[in-house]
Amino acid sequence: MNFQHLTDEQFANLLAGDHSDLRVRVHVEGCAACQRELASLGAAIGDLNYASLRWAEKRAASIETPSPWVLGWNAMPAWGATLAGVLMFGVALGAHMQLNQQNAVVVQQAHTISAPSDDELAQDNSLMLSIDNELREQIGPQVPVSDLDAASRTAHRHAIREVSN
Amino acid sequence: MQYIPVLAKSQKSVYACMQMAMATDILRLTSRERALTELDDIEDLVQTHRARLLRFVTFSLGDEDLAASIVQDCFVKAWANRHNFRGDCSVQTWLHSIALNLVRDYQRTQKFRFWKQVRKTAADVTEIAGMLPSAASSPEEQLLARERAREVAAILQTLSLNQRTAFVLRFQEEMDLSDIATTMGMPINTVKTHLHRAVRTVRTRMGGRR
């Protein structure tokens, strides 16, 4: 009988179900310790395999089939993904530049309002003159206040207040 | 006069070799086409392989949430690259090699190192061992079996990634050594070395090795 116990390689082969080595088979048949060890570890690994597969089957139910969108995106070749990326960047850049231009126009318009043109100034002046004339007509001829008596001064003040209101 | 039969004989053997090579090529093409059909049906592919892949990645990383995410990525990658599948190995082996590459990529990241320290969703080996059937044997035997399974699972977590992968692929996925070598992208002798070291550690820690 061979009392050289099983090496790790021989043990691994037996655990994996490879019984082709005659010398190993003869040794195991005559060695109770190796038989016991082989049976014990084989059972432990078998139990672990069974239990872990049942556990994985239960947990794997949460793993769903990837959506067509995800599959399509990942199936795209690298140059396609790069092209799509460049296009998206270009569109985003274009949109950003357009927005900047619009903002510039608004700012320019604000500046135009603060500095009116000659025509606008002339229109404003004529409007102011017409208002002045209307006021003058409502109040009557301008007499120096020092020339008015007390009653006339009061009437003059009332007239101005009414116009201004 | 003797020259002609010799030539004829060698020609015959050449023809036989050519026929064998053609038959091998045809077989490979057929298996590739069959595999491509299998890979095209993503729903069926997920249903068939998700449990085994989840178990493999969970044992590799020790984190079940992360494993589920990696398995999902594995299917996406396999489907996107299905036309690159050469048919040299089975679909299962190919999927496992993709999953293993994803595991290796993830293990290199800082994020993994951080979560490895926190281990909020670490796979519970007691829970896994608790999935053993309880009908066939006595309560004592069931308890012993669960304890043994839990112990092996715990020892596997202490092995290096290569040793653990070789052990899991050999004894859980029941792959032969050449398939393990393909999956791990290593020569067979290197795979054997990792496997035997893993077996040595398990034997020693289980109290069997003398």
SSE topology sketch:
The complex is a heterodimer of chains A (165) and B (210).
Chain A: H1 8-15, H2 22-30, H3 32-60, H4 68-75, H5 78-114, H6 118-139, H7 150-164
Chain B: H1 3-40, H2 42-61, H3 64-80, H4 91-107, H5 110-118, H6 125-129, H7 139-158, H8 161-171, H9 177-184, H10 188-205
Helix pairs in contact in B: 2-3, 2-4, 2-8, 3-4, 4-9, 8-10, 9-10
Write down the overall mean pLDDT of chain B.
Answer: 81
| Computed Rg of chain A | 51 Å
Look at the structure and give the CATH class of the domain at 1-123 in chain B. Mainly Alpha
Low-confidence stretches of chain A: none
Distance between the first and last residues' Cα of chain A: 130 Å
Oligomer: heterodimer
Give me the number of helical elements of chain B.
10
* Cα end-to-end separation of chain B: 69 Å
The greatest interface between two protein chains, and residues involved on each side, is: A-B, 37 and 49 residues
Major sheet characteristics of chain A: none
SSE pattern of chain A: HHHHHHH
The CATH topology of the domain at 1-123 in chain B is Rna Polymerase Sigma Factor, Chain: A
- Choose one word for the global shape of chain B: globular
Q: Specify Rg of chain B, calculated over alpha carbons.
A: 23 Å
Characteristic key phrases:
heterodimer, A: about 160 residues, mainly alpha, 7 helices, about 80% helix, B: about 210 residues, Rna Polymerase Sigma Factor, Chain: A, 10 helices, about 0% strand, globular
How would you sum up this structure, described in words?
The complex is a heterodimer of chains A (165) and B (210). By secondary structure, chain A is mainly α. Chain A has a domain of 53 residues. In chain A, 78% of the residues lie in helices and 0% in strands. Chain A has seven helices and no strands. Chain A is rod-shaped. The termini of chain A are far apart. Chain B is globular. By secondary structure, chain B is mainly α. Chain B has a domain of 123 residues: RNA polymerase sigma factor, region 2, helix turn helix motif (Rna Polymerase Sigma Factor, Chain: A, Orthogonal Bundle), CATH 1.10.1740.10. In chain B, α2 crosses α8. The model of chain B has no long low-confidence stretch (mean pLDDT 81). Chain B is built from ten helices and no strands. The interface between A and B is large, with 37 and 49 residues.
